[in-house]
Structure formats: C-alpha cells, structure tokens
Design brief:
The complex is a heterotetramer of chains A (304), B (327), C (522) and D (324). Chain B has 327 residues and is mainly α. Helix content of chain B is 74%, strand content 2%. In chain B, strands 1-2 form a two-stranded antiparallel ribbon. By secondary structure, chain D is α/β, with parallel strands linked by helices. Classes of the chains: A mainly alpha (304), B mainly alpha (327), C alpha+beta (522), D alpha/beta (324). Chains A and B meet through helix 6, helix 7, helix 11, helix 12 and helix 13 of A and helix 1, helix 6, helix 7, helix 8 and helix 10 of B.
C-alpha cells in the first residue's frame, strides 16, 4: 500500500496526473489498444469471415438501415458489406501489431548493438556505428520500401500476402534501430569507465553482465521516450507503406490499407469508408505522439 | 581541414560502393534477370545470348566491377517494364522531383525556422502552444492523408489549384522546368505543401528545442547580464548557435524530402523519380529500383558533404587555426 | 457593375475565346501505352491509342462495323484469300507516299517472330503484291472473317521504318519506332514522354473528312483513379477513361461533367483447372482437384449471386453474362441466354452429391489492376462461396505478375475477362475453349486446359462457314456444350464508363477504344 | 556617511513548488559602498548566488522576489521590469560568471561581443566602441589586444577568457560588479591573478564588488567585509578581518574551522556535523539549531534574531557572548 502511495506521489506520476494532455492521450491509447486487442469480443462482426458477409449490405450508410436488408451499421459498410467499425478494430489490430513488433525488434536490435558497440569498442564499434551513420542518411521509409521491394522479389508470388506482415515488421524495425543503438552506446561509453565496472573486472566478475545491469536502468527513460515516438512513427510508416500498396495486403487490411481502399470512394459519396479509418489512424498516432512528447519533457526536463 | 575533407570523401566513396553492392545484388539475385528480360516465348539460345551479353557467366567480383563502371558511365541497364534505358528514364524524371524537393525544402526551412524561433521565444504564449499542438497533429497525420485532404479541398471543392501533374513545362536543355509557366507554378503549390509540411514541423520542433537549449546556455545569461536587447540575444546570439545542430539535421531532412517525394508523387501523380520507384517496386522492376537507389545515395552523400562544409562556414571552432594564448 | 469589373469580364471573355479557338483537348487513362510501335505489343491500351496515329487496311466505325481505311475495298478470292484495293494519294505524316510495298513490309514486320501480333496472321499462307495499289492476302483455308480480324493491323512506312533502324519491332529494347510514330491517321505524334505525357496534333494531309475540332490533344496517364476523378472534376482534364464506376453517380450530379456509359464487349468469368490432379493452395492443397467434377463447377455457378455484384460493386452499370460473348457480338447464342440461377440450396446439394458436403479449401487468383473493380468482385466471390462452405483463399496481384502465374498453372480458380477482338463468338472458342495447341496457336488463353473433342471439331467449320444459319447452329451447339460442362462461369459483361466535361462530344466504342477524330470541343 | 552603492533590505526570494513555497533567500540585509568588496560565503544552496541574481534581476522562473527592497544608488530596482531592467544590467551592474568557458558565445568574436555591449550602453560611434573594447582588453591584460579582437573564444585559454569576461562586465563602466564564483572553474595558478585583477580594476574605478564564493582563502585575500549565509539567512556580517579571525556565529566558527587556511593556527580541525537542511525541510527556530553545538531550547523555538545592517555581527541568540 505504502509503495503504491509513494509511487502515486512520485514526481513522475504527479506530473502525469497534473498534465491533462498526458492523461487524455494515455486514456485514448489505452482505449484504442484494448479495443484492438479485444476486437474479436467487441466487434459486432468478423470482417474476415467471408461467410458472414452479405454483399447486399454493401455501402450501407452509417446508422441508417440498408435499403435491401434493413441491417444497421454504426459506421456503415464498405463495398463488400463489411462493417466499417469492425474492420477498423481489426485493422487497428494489424497496425498496432506491426507497430509494436517492429519497435520491439528495433529496440532489441538497437540496444544490443549499442551495448556491443559501446562495450567492445575498436573495430566492432566503428563498423556498427558506420553502418548506423550510413543508414541514418537514408530515411526510414525508403529503407523500409527497399527491404519490402527486395523481399517481394525473393518470396514466391503466392507467399507474398502471408509474408507481407512480417516483411513490414522487419522493414520498419530494421529502418529504426539506429536511434536506440546511439543512445545505448553513449550511455555505455560513460558507464564503462566508471570505477565499479573496473572493480568488477578486477575481481573477475563478468563485466558484460554488470554493465547490462547498470546500463539498462540508466538508459531506460531515453529508450522509453524513443520507443514511444518510434511507435507513432512505425504506425504512420506502416500506414504509408500499406497506402502505397507495398504493405499490408487487402486480405489483412491495416488502417493504411483501409484508407487506401476508401480513397477509391472519396468522390462517390461513401465518405465513411475513408473518414473513419483516417480519424482512427490520426487519433492513434496523435495520442501516442502526445504521450511521447510528454514523456520526453518529463523524463528529460532540460528539454521542456 | 584538408585531412578531414579527404576522410569525408573517402567515407562517401565507401558508402557509395556499399550501396552499389546492394543495388547490384538486387539486380543479380532478386529474381532472375534473364527471366525478367525475356518474355514468355523465349528460346534456350536467347537465354544463352543474353547471359553472355549481361556477363552473368563471369565471376561475381568481375560482374560487380562491370556493374559499377557501367553505372559510373551512366549505363544503368534497361527497365524490365518499359524496355528503355533506365538512365534516360531517370534523366526525364529527375527534374520533376528535384524541383518539387527544392520548393518544399525551401518552404520547410523558411517556415520551420521562423516558427521554431517564434515558439521558442514565446514558449509559454498561447499562440506558440497552439502551433506546437498543431505541429503534433501535423506529425501524426500521414503525408498521404494531407495530400488527399488538400486535393479534396483546393482542387475539387474550391477548384483553385490543379490536382495532379506538373502543368506545362518548358524544356531548358535537357531539363524540363515547371518554374516558367503559370500552370507549372500552380501545380507546384499543393504537392510542395504536402511534401514540406512534415519536414517543416520536424525542423520547427528541432529549432525550438535547440533554441530553448541554447537560451538556457550560460553565454545567453551573460548576454542578458550585459544588458543586451532581447532581439539581439534571440536573433544574433541564440539563433546562430541554434543553427549549428539544425543544419545537420536539416541536411538529412532535405535528403528525406527526396525520398518522401515518393508518397507525394503517388498522391499527386507527380511525374518524378518517386512515382517511378513505387511503380518499380510494384512491378519488381529491379534495374529501376537499383538505379533509383544509386541516384538517391549519390544525392544524399552529396548533401551530406555540403552539410559538412557548411559546418565549417558557421562554426569557427571547427576551423583550422587553433592558436591558444596561455594566460 | 463597376467599370473595372466589366473590363475584367471583357478581358476574361477575350481570354476564354482565345482558349476556345485553341481547343486543346486533355485526356487521361490509367495506363500509358507502353510503346508507339503498333506491332510490338498486342494490348488494348497500345492499339487503342495508336489507332489515332496509324491506320489499318480496314477500320471500325462508331458502331463497330468494318469499313475501308487504307483499303478502299476488298473482295474474296474464292476460298483462297482476300484482295485489298488500296486508297490512292494517301501520304504518311512525314510526307512519303503510301502503297502496297508498305502493306507488304508491315505484314512481314507484324508477323515476324519479334512481333507481338504474329498470331493475327496464323491463317495467312502468303501475301502477294499485285500492283502499287492492290495486294492479296492468301489464307490456308477459307476465312470469311479475315478482313474484320485485321482492323488493328496498322501500316507503317517501309522507308521511314527501315531508314530508322526499326525494321523489326522491339519488345524489350528501345528503338526509333517505340518513341516515334509515322502513320497515316488523322493525328500525328508531336511529343512523347513515356509514362508522363503524349501530345498529338491534327495531321493536315489526312485523306479523310475531318469531323473533330481539336487543335492539340494531350494524353496523361493517371494511375490513381481518385486522382483522375479529381482532375476531371477540377477541369484539369477534359476526359477520363475509365471513370471509376463508383464515381459515376457523383460525376453525373456535379455540374460541368457528364458520364458516358456503355456495355463493353468484355465478359468477366471464372476459370477452373480442368486437368490438374490436385489442389495447389489453401488448407486442402495436395488433395484431389474437385473442379474436375462438373457438379462442383455447377455448384460454383449457382453459388455466385451475380445480381448482388452488379447491384453493389458495379452500381447497376453492368449486365449478367450467360456465355463467353455479350449479346452485342455476332454469333451470340440467344438460345442459351439463361445463366445459372443464384441458388445456395441447390448449390449445396450439388456439392454433397459430388462428395463435398463439408466443402473444401482452395486458392483463387485474381488481378487487381486489369478489370473494373476486379479485386472487389473476387472478394465478393469468396464470401459467396463461403456461404456454401467452400473456403477460397484470395490472392490478388497486378496483371504483370498475374498472367505468368496463370501460365504456370499456379491457381485453383481464376478470374478472366475476354473481349473478342473480332466481335464474333468464334473468337473465344478459338482462344478459350479449344484444346491448347501451341503449334496451331489455338487455345492459347485456355489456361485451365479445358478440352472437348466436339468443340475442337467444330472450330474449323465455324471459321469457314459462309451460311449464317448453319454457322449460328454450330455456335449455339458450342455455347450449349460450354454451359453444360461449365467450362467457365461467365459472370457479367463489363460496363464502359467514361467521364468527360460537358463541353466535350465524343463517341464511345464498345471495344473501349477512344478515337480522337470523333471528338468535338464546344 | 555617503550613500551605499547597493542597499539590500530584508530581501526574500521565493520558489513556489507543488508541495510548498521555498525561500532560498529569506530576509537578507546588507549595504555595499563605493569601491568596497563584499564577500558572500556559504555552502552551495545557502542563497548567495540567488541573492546576486535577485540584485541583477536574472532570477529564473519560477523564483521571484517576494519581499524586501533593493536600492542601487538610492533608487529601488527590485520592481523594475523589462526594458528598465535591461538598461540597468551591464550599464550599472556588471556580472562575472563562474565558467569563462561557457560565458562567451562561441560563434562570435570577442571583439563583436565587446563592441555590442559598449554600443548598447554608451552613446559612442562604432570606431570609438572598438577603441574602447581594445582598451578594455588591454586593461585586463590581454596581450596584442588589437589583433585578438577578431579571435573567437575557443582560441583563448581559460584564464584569458575570464579576463575577457571581466573586460565585458566592466566595459560599460558599471558602479557594481557581481562576481559569482569568478575563479572556481580556473586553474589554481590562475585564480590569484584573476582575483588580483578584479580587485585592482575595481579599486581603480571605485566599483563596488559583490564577490560570491565559497573559498575562504579568496575572501581573506580580497574582501573588505564578509557576509555569511546559511539556509537563505544571513548568519554573520562584518569586517573581513573580524569575521575571519573572531567569528561570532557558531556556523561561521564551524566554517572557519573546516577551512584549512583559516584554521592553520588552530590545534585541530573543527567539523560541523550533518549538512545544511533542504529548503523544504527547514527546522523550526534557528535553521542551524540541529547542527549547533551550543543550541538551547530557545534556538528551536524562536527564529534567530534578525541582523540589522551594521549593528550586530551575528544572527545568533548567543553569538556575541559565546564567541570570545
């Protein structure tokens, strides 16, 4: 109890409680993530079960009974009669899955490479950081596209759809590890020369393990900030790639794919097919961004 | 400085060689070039002839060397999809992308620096906070959505600006420019805003945070303690120091503009290299992809070199004379 | 009204008059003709575009009826072939004269190995120049349809083509003829930027009677259909082909824009693997191929609710199809005009009869950039098949990778659209129904290897029969066999939807060719 | 007696936080006369820099002057804002910061920094400003001052840079200099030179100096009078000679005792137990009482007696008697 009380009163939580923006955006993120995770329970329809679709429900307007079937859909339906609300929930699942997994992949890769570079030093460090520099000169989205393009060339045609999600994750993750590596390497360089590490070396403890124990806590807050901001970037990158038709396939539509599909109905009056996924994407990216911004300000007060 | 420059140039060449290797490997190993170049009704003789022509029977290193010398002399292969030399396709498309990138880069830098300085100086003001919040919306809004929104608003609903393409262009030598016709200039507006907006917000936020950092510096306090005017402090003392880190990142951002042009060009059907590239990805047109990669990397490396040199111009600490008076 | 305002108005009037006199016509399509060489690529976008620049011996008029072009008249040489009497005084755009040497040269070029149009000349045994303005095309057997089958065979100038080193067409390399053109038609190529812009200007020396009032025509490919619609709505282009079907209603409502609708000759259908032993995709991959059983194919035919597809995805703009050609084609079998009814119960019964009461899983291949809303139609088919317990895994891809996949037999079911180039029911029998025979260039698009000896037997008589009644009887029989065997499941006839500004008058031909010389700008 | 250059009365500086309002400076009172050097000593956090910043009007938000008054040459300056405050800085009050490395703008030549300050405050031509700048540099002992005008800060050593900083602080001829730990960041060998320079220049011009430091050695060498701060309050104020040799306040005694230089003659090093309390946890009564070896019950109940300028030396109930 006391610990909870202390945590509740800690500066971090205090400044969170007193930042309406942070509270609202965290609430929004939680609502969106939870509704994506529990999409199968929340969504009134399963948009991926073709047997449940009735083509005659196609293009139902939001909250209005369909002319042929009389069914009512909250946010309307798309050309196939799929409930837009359910599709958004499932699409967000894919967007978030790709986003989270890609960031996790980038984080693990970046943190390990940063640790190795900072700790081992010498030739290894030069090699890793050179690669990082080179990659940093290329925008993430381009790197992701290239990886996607190459993967598309390598995978057999019929595997492309199945592989697409994983290719996306790897492409976005690989394009995003550099920031993590840089921060961790910097912290490692500082920590490496501290006395306890030298002492640990002297008494024959494995310094690597010690470093891990001491460095990770030190870099936790910058890594958290980078991860949050990266998550927003990854979600947008995924949406962009899918929109360009080099991302999630229509069989596993993410928010970007839905917007891409909806764009075809921009002028035909079925505005809900593009509007609602766009709003969802914006809400998701904005709330994660706001949270990241707040985290950066709070954990890194000198930037406030 | 000379040593430094030489080192940078050598590094750039290494980068280009690595990128070249990636590009070559793509060409060589992603999909069978023979398969892609010959149609359905090919004969074994055709395959052998092409294999010889392309030198695919030689050792890898020889092939790579040949690829590089070809690339250096402007021979980038033939597009699988269009059946035309990639180099000439790129030459046709490059002006469109470069003009778009230049205009949106200018837009992003001018507005980004101005707004960044403004929000840093008035960091507690209502307007500054509003701008910061809007900028977060801007960062969270994917480029393609901005483009669609702008088209819908300004082209379809209001009918003020064209929705696609470059308008009329004028040929100047081998360069087709849209700067000289009114329709060309009008056509530039929406894509430039779309492309520049994201970079603008990034530059703005960067300038703001760097400026805030600088404004906290001791020499700014000292300048205040000396009774200098706020304007002199902000624009003479702080801005100059802010620009040093901003230049690096902005240089990188300019590189990204060329890459992000892919999205804008798709939305606006802007006939540049980005649109070419995205089509190449969809059709797995490897020579075009490889050539685009090489072209972009040459541009990036060039931009980076320029940025490094700009550094020298702005920051006296990096210049050669390091005479120190003992005291 | 103030003086200033009226002056501005007057100035505006002057300016708009100036523009009106210049009559620049801009149009957009989703694909760029990939070459300017009329023999290098046999695809509708290329041939349709080049029909404005090059001409054939014959051409089709607004209602698809064949009429003379570079040939003033033609007559059969018994059952040995056809004689064409060429038009005199025709000049190519570069000023050189047109004569029978050019026709012979073009024949040799278009039928060469390097050309993509060689299959058109499969029936031809020999071409003989009689004199400067007379030329004979000899056929192996009697071929009453030959003149109408070569409406897209375009004539190039021998001197120009050879002189520029383009004696043979080039599919995968650039040559002079892929970027330049020298035809005889009403328009000449003024500027060509592949993938960006192509400009045509009227040819002053054209032999025909000018019906258009265009002074300059600019073509821009716009891949993204929404962008194309935006361009039309905002007046950046005068015409788009195609206009997205879903936008037709909106375009009709908005001022200044109209929609031109028609029925294309193209029939959209589902195809099956008739010879494959096992399924290749889905969870049942490797299990025996159920589509070999006609009852399963019938079940599929009854499971697809074509009316629903037309109602929603096609927005009521298309008509259901019962056979491989649309009613507008010659040789259409009115006797077999009924298509299988939508009947889930009957479909399920057929399935359990065939031993698939619990359904099965397979892979459906589909293009996503070839036909109107092709992918959406496939998705709808997937959900309709799901109602009868058959699980289709959809794999949609660009057409460039689609055809190679089909040629590799990498499908369990596929979507195909077929537009008979001859506007006759014989055409799909030759390409889609006859047992594949590479040597005779027959059944070349019969990916599923459908084979029926009676059909194979009837093709030659259908091709050579002169008596319409006898011919129709054979075509009726063929249509019946294909329906009974469910060789394909014809779904609907694809609609043609073009969008244009109100001040544009144009003619929409059912083959989806856009002919500039019928355009007037008001 | 002539009017003091600086007169601080009951100065209170507050920092509102979410838990409480902190008072880093709480009722500080002192005078500073022309040509006089007042040493301000105390541990870090005692409020000496805060006092200096309050005087020159450079308190960082949310810190603010909450009470008392500050008079410069008889005029109140604690309520000035914006433009008036700006004109005061540099022109009437100069400041020298601790670290010469960071006090100078790295991207401007020292000539630019000097002339911009001079033209800002003195109505002189550009040429004259430059001449004054060169003179200023010469005065602080920069060799080849003319040429060095166009050098950038990084081309100077630390000591030289601090000389430049002093030249900058003095160039508009202010009547008061606030030197906030001017030698702390310098090499020991250079410290004495800088202190000597500062002392000489101020004596020559009659500039009053508020010398903030924690270095008793510097105080002993330089200051005319000494103010000892503890937890935002003035503990002791008196002539340097007296305070250093005969400290009255128990804290000062401890401070002297823990300073090697001053305690050289004593038998043992005197150590104060514990550390200065945090501002948000000040004890009741005299802030020093928990650490004071002489504390009595009175000390924990009543605040220590206030210290009126020039009257008592130490703010201690027992200071006067017990010290001797």
């Amino acid at each position: 109890m006391e610990r909870i009380g202390r945590a509740w009163n800690s500066d971090f939580v205090w400044s969170f409680r007193h930042s309406p923006v942070a509270v609202v955006s965290l609430a929004l993120v939680l609502v969106l993530v939870l509704s994506a995770v529990f999409a199968p329970l929340i969504a009134p329809y399963d948009p991926f079960d073709p047997a449940s679709l009735n083509l005659m429900n196609g293009f139902s307007k939001p909250m209005e009974p369909n002319t042929f079937t009389g069914d009512v859909f909250w946010l309307g339906t798309d050309d196939q009669g799929r409930d837009v609300f359910s599709t958004i929930l499932y699409g967000m699942r894919i967007s978030l899955f790709v986003g989270f997994t890609a960031v996790l992949f980038a984080l693990i890769l970046g943190v390990s490479l940063g640790l190795i570079a900072g700790y081992v030093g010498g030739w290894t460090e030069t090699a890793i950081m050179r690669v990082a520099d080179v990659q940093l000169t290329f925008p993430a989205i381009l790197v992701a596209m290239l990886i996607f393009g190459i993967a598309k060339g390598i995978t057999p045609v019929h595997m492309r759809d199945e592989m697409a999600i994983w290719v996306l994750i790897i492409a976005i993750g690989l394009s995003d590890w550099v920031q993590f590596a840089r921060v961790v390497r910097g912290a490692t360089l500082v920590e490496k020369n501290k006395e306890y590490v030298q002492a640990a070396k002297l008494i024959g403890r494995k310094p690597g393990a010690i470093m891990l124990r001491h460095i990770l806590p030190n870099v936790l807050s910058p890594v958290l900030v980078i991860a949050t901001i990266s998550l927003a970037l990854a979600i947008i990158a995924e949406a962009t790639l899918s929109f360009l038709g080099v991302g999630a396939p229509p069989t596993q539509p993410s928010l970007g794919t839905l917007i891409c599909i909806g764009q075809g109905y921009l002028f035909s009056g079925e505005w809900w097919i593009i509007l609602y996924p766009s709003i969802t994407l914006l809400a998701l990216a904005l709330s994660v961004n706001l949270l990241g911004d707040w985290l950066r300000d709070t954990l890194n007060p000198k930037l406030r | 400085m000379l040593a430094y420059s030489i080192r940078r140039v050598v590094q750039s060449i290494v980068v280009l060689l690595v990128v070249g290797l990636v590009a070559f490997s793509m060409f060589r190993f992603v999909g069978d070039p023979i398969d892609n170049m010959l149609g359905q009704e090919r004969t074994d003789a055709d395959i052998e002839r092409l294999r010889g022509e392309l030198g695919l029977d030689r050792p890898f290193v020889v092939q790579y060397g040949r690829f590089l010398t070809n690339a250096a002399t402007g021979n980038l292969g033939v597009s699988y999809r269009q059946g035309r030399p990639v180099a000439s396709i790129l030459m046709e498309r490059a002006p469109a992308t470069l003009e778009l990138a230049a205009v949106s880069g200018l837009f992003a830098i001018v507005l980004g620096v101005a707004l960044g300085v403004f929000t840093a100086i008035r960091r507690n003001g209502i307007a500054a906070n509003l701008i910061m919040t809007i900028s977060l919306v801007g960062v969270s809004l994917p480029t393609f959505l901005i483009g669609i929104l702008l088209i819908y608003l300004f082209a379809v609903e209001l009918g003020w600006l064209p929705s696609f393409g470059r308008g009329d262009t004028v040929k100047l030598g081998g360069w087709s420019t849209g700067f000289l016709t009114s329709s060309g200039l009008k056509a530039l507006i929406l894509p430039s805003i779309t492309l520049g907006l994201y970079q603008m917000t990034l530059i703005m936020r960067l300038v703001r945070s760097e400026m805030l950092e600088v404004l906290r510096a001791e020499y700014i306090r000292f300048a205040r303690a000396r009774g200098l005017r706020e304007r002199a402090i902000n624009f003479h003392h702080a801005l100059k120091n802010t620009l040093v880190p901003v230049i690096t990142v902005t240089g990188l951002q300019l590189g990204s503009i060329i890459a992000f042009a892919i999205i804008t060009e798709t939305v606006f059907q802007w006939p540049g290299v980005g649109l070419l590239f995205i089509n190449a990805i969809q059709f797995v047109d490897i020579p075009v992809m490889a050539a685009y990669l090489m072209l972009i990397s040459v541009m990036f490396v060039g931009i980076n070199l320029i940025v490094d040199l700009l550094y020298f111009a702005i920051d006296p600490r990096l210049r050669v004379d390091r005479t120190v008076t003992e005291g | 009204m103030t003086v200033r305002k009226s002056m501005l108005l007057a100035l505006g009037l002057v300016l708009s008059c100036g523009v009106a006199q210049a009559n620049t016509f801009k149009w957009a399509s989703n694909t760029d003709p990939q070459t300017m060489d009329p023999h290098a690529v046999n695809s509708a976008p290329v041939l349709g575009f080049l029909n404005n620049v090059y001409e054939g011996l014959v051409r089709r008029n607004q209602t698809m009826v064949v009429e003379g072009a570079l040939a003033e008249s033609w007559e059969p040489l018994g059952d040995k072939g056809w004689r064409f009497n060429l038009r005199k005084g025709v000049k190519f755009h570069d000023g050189s004269d047109f004569n029978s040497e050019d026709v012979l040269f073009s024949y040799q070029r278009a039928s060469s190995e390097a050309a993509d149009t060689a299959s058109w000349f499969a029936p031809v045994s020999e071409v003989k120049v009689v004199d400067d303005y007379t030329i004979d095309f000899m056929t192996k057997v009697a071929n009453p349809l030959f003149p109408s089958s070569i409406a897209n065979f375009m004539i190039m100038d021998k001197g120009w083509t050879e002189g520029n080193g383009a004696a043979l067409p080039s599919k995968d390399k650039e040559n002079h003829a892929t970027l330049n053109a020298n035809g005889t038609a009403a328009f000449q190529l003024a500027e060509r930027q592949p993938g960006l812009k192509t400009v045509l200007t009227p040819y002053g020396g054209w032999w025909g009677k000018t019906e258009h009032n265009i002074t300059r025509a600019e073509f821009t490919p716009i891949q993204n259909s929404a962008t194309a619609v935006a361009a039309l709505l905002s007046g950046n282009v005068d015409m788009v082909n195609p206009a997205p079907i879903q936008d037709a209603a909106r375009l009709k409502q908005s001022g200044g824009v109209k929609v031109i609708e028609g029925i294309e000759a193209r029939v959209i259908m589902l195809g099956f693997p008739h010879q494959a032993d096992s399924l290749k995709f889905g969870t049942d991959a490797g299990k025996p191929n159920p589509f070999k059983d006609v009852r399963v194919r019938k079940a599929v035919a009854h499971a697809v609710n074509v009316d629903a597809i037309l109602q929603t995805i096609m927005r009521g703009n298309a008509q259901p199809a019962s056979q491989l050609v649309s009613p507008a084609m010659s040789g259409y079998s009115s006797a077999n005009a009924d298509r299988p009814a939508f009947d889930v119960a009957g479909s399920k019964a057929l399935l359990s009869e065939a031993g698939y009461a619990d359904g099965f899983s397979f892979g459906l291949k589909c293009p996503n950039d070839r036909y109107l809303n092709d992918e959406a139609v496939c998705q709808a088919v997937v959900s309709m098949l799901a109602q009868i317990g058959v699980k289709a895994e959809l794999d949609a891809m660009p057409v460039r990778t689609y055809w190679p996949e089909l040629r590799k037999d990498a499908y369990d079911m596929y979507l195909l659209g077929w537009s008979p180039g001859t506007f006759d029911a014989e055409h799909p029998i030759r390409f889609l129904a006859h047992t594949p025979n590479a040597e005779k260039k027959l059944g070349s698009w019969n990916f599923g290897d459908f084979s029926n000896s009676r059909i194979d037997e009837m093709l030659a008589p259908i091709q050579s029969e002169i008596d319409p009644a006898k011919r129709q009887a054979m075509l009726d029989e063929a249509a019946k066999i294909l329906q009974d065997q469910v060789a394909y499941v014809p779904l609907y006839v694809q609609p043609l939807v073009w969008g244009a500004r109100d001040n544009i008058e144009l003619t929409q031909r059912p083959d989806n060719f856009f002919i500039l010389r019928w355009v007037t700008v008001k | 007696m002539e009017m003091p250059v600086l007169s601080v009365r009951d100065l209170v500086v507050e920092i509102p936080t979410r838990h409480a309002v902190l008072r880093p400076v709480n009722g500080v009172t002192f005078d500073l006369h022309r040509g006089e050097i007042l040493g301000m000593v105390g541990e870090s956090g005692a409020g000496k820099s805060m006092t200096g910043n309050a005087v020159i009007g450079l308190l960082d938000r949310p810190a603010r002057i909450a009470g008392g008054e500050i008079l410069l040459n008889g005029e109140r300056i604690d309520q000035l804002h914006g433009e008036e405050l700006r004109r005061l800085r540099g022109k009437h009050i100069g400041m020298v910061f601790q670290d010469p490395l960071t006090s100078l703008n790295p991207l401007l030549t020292i000539g630019e920094q000097l002339t911009e300050t001079i033209t800002e405050h003195l109505n002189v031509s550009a040429a004259e400003a430059r001449q004054r700048a060169v003179d200023g540099l010469r005065e602080v002992g920069i060799p080849a001052a003319e040429q060095r005008m166009d050098a950038y800060p990084h081309q100077f050593s630390g000591g030289m840079r601090q000389r430049v900083v002093i030249a900058l602080a003095l160039c508009a001829e202010p009547s008061l200099i606030i030197a906030d730990e001017p030698t702390t960041a310098l090499d020991v060998s250079v410290q004495a030179q800088i202190i000597a320079l500062l002392k000489r220049l101020c004596r020559e011009r009659g500039t009053a100096v508020m010398l903030i430091t924690h270095d008793m050695g510097v105080i002993a060498e330089t200051a005319d009078r000494v103010a000892v701060l503890y937890a935002g309050r003035m503990a002791e104020l008196g002539l340097a000679r007296d305070v250093l040799t005969q400290p009255n306040h128990p804290y000062t005694i401890g401070l002297m005792g823990s300073t090697p230089l001053a305690s050289a003659g004593r038998a043992r090093l005197y150590q104060i137990d514990g550390s200065m309390p945090r501002l948000d946890a000040l004890p009741s009564g005299c802030a020093f009482n928990p650490r004071c070896s002489r504390a009595q019950s009175k000390c924990s109940q009543d605040p220590s007696p206030s210290l009126a300028a020039h009257q008592d030396r130490a703010a201690c109930w027992f200071g006067g008697e017990n010290a001797q």
